[in-house]
Amino acid sequence: MIDIILAILSTVGALSILFASIGILRMPDFYLRLSVTVKASTLGVGLLLICAAIMFPDVSVTTKAIAIIFFLIITAPIAAHMIGRAAYFTGTPLWKDTVIDQLAGMYNKETHELESNGEVKNSEGGSEPPNIAKSEEETE
Amino acid sequence: MITLETYFDFVILPILSISAMLVFIRLYKGPAIVDRVIALDLIITIGIGIITVYSIRADQQVMLDVAIILALIAFLGTIAFAYYIEKQKK
């Protein structure tokens, strides 16, 4: 019985890690890759660690596994938000079929502060156009 | 009769290895540096999974300490990359 539970948990974990890596390879631009990667890989590693916690009949292993899962769940969204913000500031283009970019023109380019009502203007006085790629090759 | 040990050896570990190889393709291709940063982060996360499965198979629970250290290093590395990419002069 416990073997079946372990097999199901490890299979779901390994498959979600596989889907994360297929997603990082196949998704068309950086932001979609980031959105696929973080959630699926955190779920997969969490399930594998739960598997290890059930497998070893020892309190210390369970504590370590819970510590790693807790740390991953806390830190993965923070790291993803930091790297996504840095990518947006350095001008990583969005996918060519992007419909809307609600952050376009909202960031102050010098101080990197977010304005709420879009009052940041460029030098000509107009609002900033969204940074959408012209072709598929630009983000691939 | 398939035991759990052979299932880990012949199904779970190959799936994780193929995942790591697919991410290495993105690490090599990646058009921007931020693509490479998230590919490196995902490789370390897959490494934590591989260490976990290997510690189950080898019955060595000491290896989970290495997984804790790797999780710390992945987080700090991504944060440092994001900090310096944001500060760089273009």
Automatic annotation (TrEMBL), chain B:
GO terms for cellular component: plasma membrane. Keywords: Antiport, Cell membrane, Ion transport, Membrane, Transmembrane, Transmembrane helix, Transport. It is found in: Cell membrane. The chain crosses the membrane at residues 6-25, 37-56, 62-85. GO terms for molecular function: sodium:proton antiporter activity. The keyword Nucleus does not apply. It is a multi-pass membrane protein. Belongs to the CPA3 antiporters (TC 2.A.63) subunit F family. This is Multisubunit sodium/proton antiporter MrpF subunit.
